């Protein structure tokens, strides 16, 4: 028996192969995807892609079989990054499915699904209905129709690279040396195509596609996975370092000293560039990005729009406000010119353009976008998240000069500092983010809130 509820998450499908997620599940999901999205009555075809994990080709083929069994055609773009699948969905105006488990370890795989034009499929927009149908049909033979659909291959790598280079032209920038750590993920497939022209010398690190991740996990959010890139940037005398996650939809940036550049600083820099092209536009930022981000957006004539954490909320607000750009502190970046989908590669091109269009090193350039001191996300295990958050609100909510909101968890803002604490959707964790104007204040607030979370005595501080 397949525990469908365990692998169908809020935004995607993800589980251990083959114990939780196998070809039978993928096949049933392909058929259910077509039925729930009513593909037969609409475009009559779907597009699929897959990453470098050993299990990905077979799972994608099973999904294609399930979809084709309903009578719709399947376009298989083969090896792809997740943002390349979004490109295919947008360019071809077809619903799509990407086989990847992103940054998860090798034993995992999954599916990210979208409607035509790269519009997300989440729990509230079809994924729950797909899961319910899969639960009913996974152990049954796939029914056949008199005229099953055809599966055809289509190579879109060059078209994807051309589209990105049309959006950000690097041909006029100064020469740059850039170390790229693909983490044995899909960046090793897409980076050579995107940077085939222009004055950027790429120093490749772990470009060999290997879903067993022999060098380090393809999760740049964990500092230990950036160590090799940081050392290589300094050793090579490079201008910049870029790290992509397993499916290459997120990009992290390292300056010439080997130090990380905050994704909030990247969000601010890209927002400024997009507002120069589209004056007065809205820009989305999630509520744990630096306070510098909305300040920069407003200073450059844009309208900052604050959103909950998570791509479905970002994309929804981008559609509602016609925002030109959206950024999250997790290094997901969304572009109106890319069907409002997230693409780390396009963000990387903007970073290189910003650096190459002037003479300062990356550390000096991005210091202009780093105005505050942040704790980074701190995760703590708790028995009762709701009770803990309530206790934190009781402590801070009545203080003079503080404001409280509940857009996503609890945010307390005192002007010179703020923090957000929110519960994980999948684990007994509270996630804390703190920011302040100086390190001492940030550390004081951080330790104060952590004491409440862990149950330690709280020392009153002014």
From TrEMBL:
Residues 7-133, 159-258, 268-372 form the Alpha-D-phosphohexomutase alpha/beta/alpha domain. One of its GO terms (molecular function) is phosphomannomutase activity. One of its GO terms (biological process) is carbohydrate metabolic process. Residues 377-451 form the Alpha-D-phosphohexomutase C-terminal domain. The keyword Ribosomal protein does not apply. Keywords: Isomerase, Magnesium, Metal-binding, Phosphoprotein. SUPFAM superfamilies: Phosphoglucomutase, C-terminal domain, Phosphoglucomutase, first 3 domains. It comes from the Bacteria. Its cofactor is Mg(2+). This is Phosphomannomutase. NCBIfam families: PRK09542.1. It holds the Pfam family PGM_PMM_II. Belongs to the phosphohexose mutase family. It is an enzyme of class 5 (isomerase). Its EC number is 5.4.2.8.
């Amino acid at each position: 028996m397949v525990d469908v509820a365990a692998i169908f998450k809020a935004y995607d499908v993800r589980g251990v192969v083959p114990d939780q997620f196998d070809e039978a599940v993928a096949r049933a999901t392909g058929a259910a995807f077509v039925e729930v999205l009513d593909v037969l009555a609409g475009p009559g075809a779907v597009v699929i892609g897959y990453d470098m994990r050993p299990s990905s080709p077979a799972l994608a083929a099973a999904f294609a079989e399930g979809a084709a069994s309903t009578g719709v055609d399947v376009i298989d773009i083969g090896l792809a990054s997740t943002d390349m699948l979004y490109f295919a969905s947008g360019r071809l105006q077809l619903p799509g499915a990407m086989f990847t488990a992103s940054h998860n370890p090798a034993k995992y795989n999954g599916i990210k699904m979208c409607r035509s034009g790269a519009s997300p499929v989440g729990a509230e927009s079809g994924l729950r209905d797909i899961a319910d149908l899969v639960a009913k049909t996974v152990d049954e033979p796939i029914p056949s129709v008199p005229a099953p659909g055809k599966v055809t291959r289509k190579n879109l790598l060059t078209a994807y690279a051309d589209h990105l280079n049309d959006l950000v032209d690097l041909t006029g920038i100064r020469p740059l040396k850039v170390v790229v750590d693909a983490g044995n993920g899909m960046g090793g497939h897409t980076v050579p195509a995107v940077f085939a022209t222009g004055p950027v010398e790429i120093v490749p690190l772990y470009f060999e596609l290997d879903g067993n991740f022999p060098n380090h996990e393809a999760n740049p959010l964990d500092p230990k996975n950036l160590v090799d890139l940081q050392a290589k940037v300094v050793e090579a005398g490079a201008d910049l370092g870029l790290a992509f996650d397993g499916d290459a939809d997120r990009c992290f940036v390292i300056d010439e000293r080997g130090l990380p550049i905050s994704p909030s600083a990247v969000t601010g820099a890209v927002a400024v560039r997009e507002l120069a092209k589209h004056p007065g536009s809205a820009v989305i930022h999630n509520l744990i990005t630096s306070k510098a981000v909305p300040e920069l957006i407003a200073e450059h004539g844009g309208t900052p729009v604050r959103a909950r954490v998570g791509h479905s909320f970002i994309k929804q607000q981008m559609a509602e406000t016609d925002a030109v750009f959206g950024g999250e502190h997790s290094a997901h970046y969304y572009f109106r010119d890319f069907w409002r989908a997230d693409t780390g590669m396009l963000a990387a091109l903007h970073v290189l353009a910003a650096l190459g269009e002037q003479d300062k090193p990356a550390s000096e350039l991005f210091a202009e976008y780093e105005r505050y001191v942040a704790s980074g996300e701190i995760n703590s295990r708790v028995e009762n998240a709701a009770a803990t958050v309530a206790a934190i609100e009781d402590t801070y909510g009545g203080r003079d000069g503080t404001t409280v909101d509940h857009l996503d968890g609890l945010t307390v803002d005192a002007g010179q500092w703020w923090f957000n604490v929110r519960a994980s959707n999948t684990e007994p964790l509270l996630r804390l983010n703190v920011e302040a104007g100086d390190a001492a204040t940030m550390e004081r607030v951080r330790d104060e809130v952590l004491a409440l979370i862990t149950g330690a005595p709280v020392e009153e501080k002014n």
